[in-house]
């Protein structure tokens, strides 16, 4: 049984067959448009596809959609495209070796994976016409009616995949390679990262559990080990990323991205390297625009932090000071404020971020995405960690001074009221406010356990609900434009099952690997920043991520359209964010340990500002030194991927060398010396023998002089 | 006149001719040995040279030396070697393009520079026999009697060079290229760095002078600008270094170094890349040995700092507290202690550093040198900056508390003595000790002006004195072994002038470019660390370095043997040291400004520990952010060298592409679809027309339904 699964997992081409040879499905949604417009755009679509050598079949998609099935017209065309793509890779340094000049032989030597095939067809469909594609950009520009372009799931592969992963403890590199052959390097990189992180979490969980049971709370030893762990993990992944990129043959592929259709060029210049005329936007201008990121990041942080701080103050006041009427209801107020205001704020800020990123005018998709991710990461950071920072570094140390002043509205009667009588306890304030020492730990547990579980559940539930809602919305839209959805009765009965499947897949959401990476990155942040508060966090993450890895696989298989197999040579900007969190961790840990380490029950001992600054200064510099040392050490150890790259480059060159190395000097003794003064100088002694004799004469002469 | 100079500067091959075609001179010093040994080793030498295709002539070197003149036997041999070297470069990724298969054509396309010729002959002489050389290692192993192996100066070139440089303000890239063609990339990199630094110093001097005359002392604005300047300089050089390496065709050349003869292999393994059997020493073992550097650096720093601190205490005591007998003599005591003890300590520590570096067992010369440089840099750092750190951060802020306790021997009578009478003022202490506020500034001026001038003078004087002393020592040694030096009377009169010149050159010292780089790096440190104390430092350095650049050129021409033209792709580990000093500068400046900025006459105002820590913490993080931003910004701007590299690689690949790209698909429509279910699915609609009609039918049908 397992053998069959393996066989299915490793048969890359079988899949398309089970999809009746369909490479892409284009969902054409005419339901939201007028008939004339729809027909015109449809005709244009078919013609564009036909022009680039794609063959089409059209079926009713039901619900006001037409499904255009796309495949390459001839295998020969595909082979030509593959070859050109490989040559382009080689021209840009992605491949070490040029592809074989005989294309057929080249394909036999490096068989076409399904991901490569799909990627190449995708390029045919989406690249601008100037670059040899049909120029189809779903939902944009001239192609507003195209709802989506997606490949079809290979259900047999998916079933085998899920089965395999749910029955093994770890995902092997071979499994990742199979995944990459189907879903492309970008998705494979996410799973590779997740697996690598999971393996490291075993160590972190072991360290955390030992610290929890054996060491005192807020142990310095644990904080140091935890920091070291994060440094080693980040540096290790940095190397592994390069390694995988080399093994998967995608190193530097990020430099070879497809041009954004929205890129606005300032002028056309001749590329100094390729001598082609290219669209040009000056780098310094982009740089100037990028500098707007700094005020934006600061502003966004300030706004969001202020929001959190005010709500936090209200929350503290309500839960720990206020004792008046409706307390049981009012305590839910802060959570309500946050859950309504934060999405509003972040969506406004995200819009501004998008405007900024558009303004920065990137030439290709991947740099655009990276710029956007970096901006949004600022909000992620604030929303994820500021509540905990507030508790740890404001509430706990200064709560006793600040909290009594929170009652600016005078809602709480002064504490003399306690003297009155037992009956008037409704408006009673606690005699002396005492900081709740467990608050920080409870909050950390909430973020590292409860929130993770909730998010795991939501990830499964939300797409399902979304689908329901969208279906309703479409029905409404259809009705408004006079479209009565077909019920599938017109289908050829032989195709009905297949078409039903395709219609369902067309309704699924788009898988965005960045969301999953963000989730993991934020999680890593909790570990580096706050695990001294509750060392078991790593254990929770270990369990959570073991499931996450599998549920993400299931999500791709079941709840999302099959992703287009894009290439990538890394996890992109997330590596920097991991490094940043690891650095922040060295600061946060030092501050936490300094504040809480000697305290009973989490109450800080007397603290001095210079003490905490010294702790941070020390810790940070130790962090730098450690990172440097770990990087050095890892850099000296050879990695299999880099070895492979060196070998490939060497072999390519040696082949050339062997072809060309017939050159050898003929020994024509003394051929060089000619005439004149130079000839006289070099003519005195003949050959080695002459020189030896001359030397002995010189040596001898001086000794003899002495002996005389 | 200038035209002739230019002509000489750009005629690379003329030089060897004026040296009678001599490529290298081997100075064989038999004076220190027995006759039999000397004769045996001499014979071996000639045979070894003969075996690798080198031709020799021997002349009396006078003073117990024999001079062996070496040249390549045939031009054909040389061409073969050049070709092999270029192919090796290409195999290791130093060159983008493979050299032309026709060697003669290859040399015509890329003419042989004198540096390349000399480098290749040098390799013939010094490479181990296993790698095709004669395996001659001067002063080591079997070649103890070989005093030196050196090329001869090209006096005409040197004269033109010195004349040109002493009459122009800046050294142009073309000049550097000429230099590189003669002296190799390693020396050229030093001068390129020095010129780049000099250009940046113009800005620094302008900033410094304005700050000195317009801003208050210890101005924050100046400190920030100065720090920013240092960041920009380091980042700029980092890019320029790569750029130059590409232009000079030596990028990555550091990965292709010659093996150290002293490398001890643990076992022989097959290289996974080249499949050759290579000598192997495990990286982890070297790493473990390298970790000894940490305790060594800490220990050395502690010892040297303690030395400086004690001497400093004595000095303060003697100059500012002590008033007893012999004061006028005793004040010289600290300087004497330092100038005797520091060399002793550093030479012991350098020996330990050498032992450590030997123990680390590097495979090639350049990594050995880099490791040694890094260790010695620790001493450089301590010896150069600790005296100033002590004054700035110990003496000035804490002097008033510490100094009165320095009189541990009770040499000074208590201050009551002032009450006695005017006559007993010999043993009188100052009534209340007052820190000397000018001390720091005076010290900075000493290090940035006086010491620079002195070192410039010493650089010129010391080699001259050394030569004198060595000549005496040799005469003594000759006498002991019964060698009576020849007086040159046996020379062929036609050769006498030439031989006299060669004998003189043989006596010159060896030029070590690292010493000059060290000097510049240490100077840069004064600028980053202490220029807030005296902003004119940059002006002094600007003047000094303008002369230094020229005097270093003169030093190479006149006082040193002509250096062997080694290759290099950077200034090596000094870049890291510059970065380190720039970082330290951000810390030191912040501390200086915090301590002294509001003070009159350099006395610190009331200070708090947390204040200084905050200042440092802020400043350092601003430094990080700035460095990051500058690096980003510079990274986005294209550099000419990198552009050239991209172009070369692209052209190489395109050539291949043009040769091979005859591949194009034949349009065989619908060739792919075959039979069965798949055939049925794809057979419904014929061509684009069929699909369009089908689509229209689907679209129409739904609208019609509505219209019914």
What does this molecule look like?
The structure is a homodimer of 708-residue chains. Chain A is mostly helical. Chain A has 24 helices and six strands. In chain A, 65% of the residues lie in helices and 5% in strands. Chain A has a four-stranded antiparallel beta sheet with strand order 2-3-1-4, with helices on both faces. A two-stranded antiparallel ribbon of chain A has the order 5-6. In chain A, α1 packs across α7 and α6 (114-126) crosses α8. In chain A, 37% of the residues are buried. The model of chain A is unreliable at 1-17, 415-431 and 663-673 (pLDDT under 50). Chains A and B meet through α3, β2, β3, α4 and α10 of A and α3, β2, β3, α4 and α10 of B. Chains A, B: Residues 180-647 form the Anoctamin transmembrane domain. Chains A, B: Keywords: Membrane, Transmembrane, Transmembrane helix. Chains A, B: The chain crosses the membrane at residues 187-207, 213-234, 294-317, 329-349, 376-396, 444-465, 574-596, 608-630.
Which pair has the most extensive contact?
A-B, 118 and 117 residues
What is the share of helical residues of chain A?
Answer: 55-70%
Mean pLDDT over all positions of chain A: 83
In one word, what is the shape of chain A? globular
Helical segment count of chain A: 24
Rg result of chain A: 34 Å
Uncertain residue ranges of chain A: 1-17, 415-431, 663-673
Question: What is the total tally of β strands of chain A?
Answer: 6
Rounded to the nearest angstrom, the distance between the terminal CA atoms of chain A is 101 Å
Q: Please report which band the strand proportion of chain A falls in: under 5%, 5-15%, 15-25%, 25-35%, 35-45% or over 45%.
A: 5-15%
Instruction: Order the strands across the largest sheet of chain A as they lie in space.
Output: 2-3-1-4
The oligomeric state is homodimer
Following the backbone from N to C, one meets helices and strands of chain A in this order, namely: HHEHEEHHHEHHHEEHHHHHHHHHHHHHHH
The assigned structural class of chain A equals: mainly alpha
Largest sheet of chain A: 4 strands, antiparallel
Keywords (chains A, B): Membrane, Transmembrane, Transmembrane helix
Pfam family, one (chains A, B): Anoctamin
Protein name (chains A, B): Anoctamin
Domain Anoctamin alpha-beta plait (chains A, B): 21-146
